Amino acid sequence: MELHRTDEGFALYKEKTQIGFCALTPAAKGAAITAFGIEPQWRRKGYGSYLLKEALRAYAGYDRETATVFTAPLPADAAELAFWAKFGFAAEGRQLVRRRTPDLTAVKFVQDFLAARLAQPRLCIDATCGNGGDTAFLCGITAPEGKVVGFDVQEAAIASTRKHLEQLGVPAARYELHCQSHADLLQVVQPGTADAVMFNFGWLPGADHAVFSTAQSSIPALQAALEAVRPGGVVSAILYSGQVIGTDEKQTVLEYLRALPLKSFTVLVCDFANWAETAPLPCIILKK
User: Fold this and answer.
1) Would you call 209 helix, strand, or coil by DSSP?
2) Are residues 96 and 74 in contact, defined by beta-carbon separation less than 8 angstroms?
3) Which residue from 26, 54, 99, 200 has the fewest beta carbons nearer than 10 Å?
4) What is the rounded (10 degree) CA torsion for 164, 170, 176, 180?
5) Percent of the chain residues topping a pLDDT of 70
6) Beta-carbon neighbour count of residue 92 at 10 Å?
7) Of 257, 195, 193, which Cα lies nearest the Cα of 221?
């Protein structure tokens, strides 16, 4: 089975024979599906589900952080209507509509908080670059004359972050990236000068999951970050647990954060009450 892009949208092939098609017109956020079909002899075998799922995926239909709207012709057959309903389409007037609002992820929660809290910060630190998502976010909220400093011990993460920023057109003068431990950030940043420091612990997405952060480096890094931020500054940290990395880092960091003196810091641990216990846990430290 092969999926081909066409001028109209997508074509699904099996053994070099086209068995399905999806014609669509891209929209700003989503797409309008104008025609969709699977050859009769290949129906009810999962090919239609595969084709529609891939078409949605290609236009951010499964991106948890993107709002999308997809439309499709209203079918006359009840069975076809049930098929589209499996993918979130519902009848609205004379067409089917699939609306998806962004989920509130731990990353989005922290980013929204920082964007609302900080007014054109001048110096921000991404202490765990990963693939550059937080680095790009910080570049977007800093003042035009500001700078973002990024750290990661993995060369692949630094390369991925640099590529991401270049693809977004972020001027090179707006950031600097360091392939070194975030525990050493005070070797690069002066104490009391940063507006925000972001940590997203765990592992590099898409890389070897055997390489992940631990409390042995995370606690010193948090200590350095709290020294690096100015009064009124913010340190954020997203903690992880699970079968691969266990719970040691998460529990150790939580103990450290809860022991911070109230006279110097306000600590928020933002638990998503109806998520799994292994879900990412956003924490925010406000320096007084």
Assistant:
1) coil
2) yes
3) 26
4) -10
5) 93
6) 12
7) 257
In Å, how far are 89, 122, 136 from 64, measured between CA atoms?
17, 30, 18
Residues 187 and 212 placed together within one structural domain of the fold:
yes
Q: CATH number for the domain including 41?
A: 3.40.630.30
Distance, in Å, from the CA atom of 132 to the CA atom of 134, rounded to the nearest integer, reads 6
What is the count of structural domains for the chain? 2
User: Could you tell me which residues come within 8 angstroms of residue 45 by beta carbon, excluding any fewer than 6 positions away?
Assistant: none
Q: Is the pLDDT of residue 87 over 60?
A: yes
Say which CATH number the domain at 113 has.
3.40.50.150
Q: State the Cα–Cα distance between residues 176 and 252, nearest whole angstrom.
A: 30
How long a stretch of residues is the chain?
288
Mean pLDDT confidence for 46-71? 93
Q: pTM for this structure?
A: 0.74
Please, where are the H alpha helices in 29-177? 47-58, 78-85, 106-117, 133-141, 155-168
* 69, 122: one domain: no
The pLDDT tens digits of the residues spanning 213-266 come to 566 788 999 999 999 999 999 999 999 886 556 678 889 999 999 999 999 999
Domain final residue, candidates 46, 65, 100: 100
